[in-house]
Each structure stands twice: as structure tokens, then as C-alpha cells.
């Protein structure tokens, strides 16, 4: 699909928790997917043109899903580790506030050693 998209194709975050660039929509989308799924899954590895995203990865807890998703590739689904990696790097942004997404509180130790 990427070759048919017009515009500059960019990667915005990874399944390993890295955020790339200044756009806040992709990060808010990942966080939104986590909150609205009742903290059962998270859509990451956001890439595409503008806000048209392709080829995402879904982190989830295998015990919390049914069907084909529960057999997904463990090399891409980092499960709770993937949640933690994203949440460590995610900073609340204007879109999170607009959507009234709750603040995810880090532990006191994490707050003292916060990621940049």
C-alpha cells in the first residue's frame, strides 16, 4: 500500500517504544487504542503519509484476546513490555487532552528517571 500513497512516507513510532518526529496524532492514536481497549491492546509502529497509517503492530496480552489475534507473532507483539516501552516515552499532548484521555501515571522511581 505504501507505494500507492502520495506524499512523504514517515515512521512516527516503533513497537519498541521509540517516538519519532514532532507529530502528536500518531502518539495519541497509540495511547487512545490502549485506553479505549481497557488496557488490553495497543496499536504501535505507526507509519504512513499524514494521518493515513499502514502496517501497524498490535501489542496485547495473549490471555486477554480470543481468536486469531491470540496466535500473533511474538517477535512483534511485545505484550506488557511493549505497553511499558511506549508509556515510558509517551508525553501527554494536546490531542490526549482534547480526547479527555486519562493521564497514565508513572511510578515515583520512573518519574525520577524519566525518559527525555
Instruction: Give the integer mean of the pLDDT values.
Output: 86
| SSE succession | EHEEEEHHH
Global shape: globular
Number of strands: 5
Secondary structure category: alpha+beta
Oligomer: single chain
Fraction in helix: 25-40%
Major sheet details: 3 strands, antiparallel
**Which spans have pLDDT < 50 for at least 5 consecutive residues?**
none
Strand content: 5-15%
How far is the first residue's CA from the last residue's CA?
33 Å
Distinct helical segment count: 4
Major β-sheet strand ordering: 1-3-4
Rounded to the nearest angstrom, the radius of gyration is 14 Å
Give me a quick take on this structure:
The chain is α+β, with helices and mostly antiparallel strands and 116 residues long. It has helices at 25-36, 79-89, 94-98, 108-112; strands at 10-11, 41-44, 47-49, 52-54, 57-60.
Q: Could you explain the architecture of this structure?
A:
The chain is an alpha+beta fold. 28% of the residues lie in helices and 14% in strands. The protein contains four helices and five strands. It has helices at 25-36, 79-89, 94-98, 108-112, and strands at residues 10-11, 41-44, 47-49, 52-54, 57-60. A three-stranded antiparallel sheet has the order 1-3-4, with no helix packed on it. Strands 2-5 form a two-stranded antiparallel sheet. The chain starts with 9 loop residues before the first strand and ends with a helix. 25% of the residues are buried. The model has no long low-confidence stretch (mean pLDDT 86).
